[in-house]
Every structure is written in structure tokens, then in C-alpha cells.
Amino acid sequence: MNIKGNIYISNLESKISDKNSSPDTKHKEIVNETTSEKSVDHGGTLNPNIQILADTYAQELIRSKKDYTPIHVDEMTSRLAKFYEKIRKVIDWKDDNAIRRGSIERILKRVLFPKLAGFLIKNYDPETLAETITIELIRGGHLPNHTIPRERLGGVSEALYKYLYFFEHVSNDRSFKVKEKTNLATFILEIAACEIEEILTNPVKEQEITKAMTNILNDRISVIPSDSLNSDEKLKIIRISAQRTLYDLDDNFIIYQLLKEEYPDWHNPSPDRIGEMSNKIPDWWKNAYKKINTRINGKFDSVSEGVDTVFMLLDDVLEELKDKPNKIRSTLENKEKLTDLITKSYNKRYKTLKIRLLHLAFFSTLSVFLSNWVTFYIIEVPLAHLFYEGFNLSAAIIDFLIPTLVMFFLVIIIKPPKKENLKKIISTTLSFVYKDGGQEHYQIRIAGKRFRLFNVFMTLLFILSAWLVFTSIAFVFYVAKLPITSVIFDTFTIALTVFAAVVIRNQSKELSVDEDRNFSDFVLDILTLPIAKVGSVLAKKWREYNIVAIFFNFVIETPFVAVLDFIQGWSEYLKERRSEMH
């Protein structure tokens, strides 16, 4: 599960509401107060990083308008595929920003995983597989129809050649155990999905915004003691935090970015280089996740989370100006115009924030609910009968109802930003965009040896909190007279649910700058974070052993795709016959 949660563009599609909707009346009053109380200078000198961002994005927009050959799929098969993808969204339990990349992973696994099990499979060459992936993404609504240039298929096939070599190397290596080989092959395909998506979507705007955020924060963050991190290490950690907080990118995507940094020839390696890379795959897999999830990374993430709203709204502004590439820089240089555009974007997001959170909560809760049905009949009922226990009707209802109510409660208490938040956002945005906007600096203290005893104490306190919360939840299930096996199982199910709810709560802060925490937030963290930590570990295992997803991948999806291919081929044949009628 990745509630936290495609590369960048699908995340934007999930976060930006209908462009034609107008801001609510109440929030218009906030805007008027802001603009009336503070006069805005018309002109401003752009921060050099923002200037590079504006110029690079404008050049890419102009370049992308060259002639190209679009890829087209049949609309009828596309409707069927989109309906199936909605079902998969519930089953896979992924956040919107990972749905498209998850679809690429599914296609690769469906095509290549039978080889790991020793089944004979059709040998896919990179060109054929590249076209298969692209067609299925367009058909499923993950890429726009009649828009993606056919010329990009060459880049996808070149990337696939490398990953197919890696996959072949792992599948033929008998030194790995079955589970280890499966997990390693999964890692390869997940990294492959990152590169394929990047090639097909060409997210120049998002890459440049991430780069600008990284460089600006690098100038403003100081580390204490100063010799605890060298300049390269500091820049790398800030880049990871910018990717993670600004676009909610997951670990696999961040690892892919690190691999590109480590290997400058990653996109065009020589055959000898590919062989060298394939030998290092096990080390990447074992060490990469640990490197990007240290306590130090968490400290930088906290700073990035405090300012990522600025760059998220700047992304919206650039998206608004994409049809006027020649006016991007002049618009950003005009403080009054930029303030108006930032305000407009803020109002759109503010108006739809609660709806989008409820939408995310609905799919997360529905996925938990459906998985409960599967585990109830496959695991809980057999275990209850094995230990001579059983389910009565009330116990069964509680078994399904409590996780749903927990999710509902944790989402319903989420509050929108305060009225004065917009003023703070505009002020902070101007300070980042312009040279003369004033600069706020941040200090990050790297704990030394003298803090180790304190950290041990806090860790023990955190573990104690987790034990108390788990015990309380288990007691509720026990009093409800659930079988003892279900008490244990459902307690961990609650951990998954709380983890999902905490991530949703974090996403509700997308419009907040320098969040002010109150006492109720402190208490809620004490109750939820320890159990959510356990839930995050279980979520990783859920992705690994999601039986329903595996069933759909190979038993349902394979014949379904074959039917869609047949319908599309039949439709094209009929079009050809109709064109012959003169």
C-alpha cells in the first residue's frame, strides 16, 4: 500500500479541481482582506533558480509543439478498460499519484512473472512490449488519447532492453531463494515503471520545480554541527525531501532518481555497462531503502513539508500559463499578477480539499473493507473453527464495522486551514520567488552522542505508547466476544487503517505553511503515530502478499486484455471495410 501515497502529473490531476469552478464566497473575503491590507509592488527581480525554472519550462513548451505522430486507441475498448482500472484502484489500494505507475508494474508482471515460475512464455522484444504498455495506459485512461507522440516509443524500448536484461539475469540466477528472487524481480520492474512513465509523460515542469526547491532550500538550510554533513550529502538529502514532500513520490521513484545520479549513462549504457549494473542489483535492493529513510532524512522532510505549498502553488501557476510560454517569465516578474494567480490556485484547492480527502478516504476504507471480506472467510473463520470457536452475527458485524468507523472518525476531524493562512502563503511565496522578498533560514541539528540516552528514552516511550494503544484496541474486540484469533488479526487491521488515516491527515496539510500545532494535535499524535508506525510495516507486507491483486493480475486481467485486443482489432477491421464502401 502506498497511501502516500505516476510520476508527477497524475498527482496534479488528483489535486486540482475543475478549472471552471469559482472560489467560495467565504474565501473571497479572505482574498480581499489580503490584497487590501498589503499593497503589492508590480515588479520584482526573480530568484535565479526561479528564473531558470521559468525559462526552461517555456523552452520545453515551445519545443513540444513540433510536429509528431500521436498514438490513438479505440474509444469503445477504452471505456471498458477505464471501468476495469477503477476496480483495480480499490484492489491495489494505491494513492492517485501511484496509480499510473502501478498500472505499468502490473503489465510488466503479467508479461514477465510467469518466467520466474518456470512457465513457458512468449518472448517479448522491447519494441513490442513498449507499444503494449503505452497502448494499455492510453486505453485505461492513464495517458491522454491521441496526444502521446509515437516517437517516444523508441525511448521506452531502449529502457526496456536494459531492464529485460536485469530481469533475465535475476531469473536465471539459482543462488537466490524463491521469495528473494521474486522480491528482487519486483524491485527491478518497479524501477523500470518509473523510467517508462518518465519517458512517456516528459515531466519537465515538475523536474525543474523540484530542482528549484532543492537549490533554494540548500541555500537556506544550515546544518549544526557544520561538519556533520558535507555539501554533496546535504544537497542529496534535500533533493530527496523535495521529491517526497512536494509530489508525494514514493521510495521506488526516489531510488530511481539516485540511480540516475550514480550512473550518468543510465539511459544509454553500453552492453558492458549493463552487465556491470546487473551485478549490483542485489546491493541496490538491500541498501537503497535504508539510505533514504534515516532519522536525518526525517529532519529535512520536516523543513520541506513547511514550504512545499509554495512550490505546489507555483506549479499550478505554470500549468495555468502553459498555453502562453512566451509570457511565463514576464508574468512571474510581476508581483501583482503572480499574487492573483497564487490566490486563484489556492482558492481552487481550498474549495475541493475536503472532497478530495473524503474521496481518498472512501477508496482506502473500501479497500480495507473488501480485504476484510477476503481475510474473514479465508483466514478468520477457518482459524476460529480450528480452535473450536465461532462467529455470531454481532461479532461479525463488529469485525467489519470498527475499522470503518476508525477511518471515518480520523478523517472527519480534519480541519481546513485557518483564514490567515493565505496571507502567510503569499508572503512566503514572494520571499522564495523574488530576490528582494526576504529570506527565512532554517537550522537542522544533527544529534551527537550526548543525545543518544535521550533518544533511547523517547524510543522506549514510543514503544510503550504503541503497546498501550494495541492493548486497548484488542480489549475492545475481546469484550465484543470475537474469537481470540480474530482479536489478534483485527487489531493489526486497525493498525493498517490508522496508517492510512494518518497519511490522509498529512495530505490535508497541503495548503498549510509552517503548521501551528495545538494540544489536540499533540494528543492525537500520541494515540495514532505508534500504531500507524506498525501499520506502515504491515502495509509493505500487504503489497507483497495481496492475494486479491495477484488473482486479478493473472486470472482476470490476462484474458480481459486479450478480449480488449480482439475488440480493438475487430473495430479497426470494420473501419477498413466501411472505408471501402464508395
TrEMBL record:
Keywords: Membrane, Transmembrane, Transmembrane helix. The keyword Membrane applies. The keyword Membrane applies. The chain crosses the membrane at residues 357-379, 391-414, 453-478, 484-502, 545-567. This is Uncharacterized protein. It comes from Candidatus Woesebacteria bacterium GW2011_GWA1_38_8.
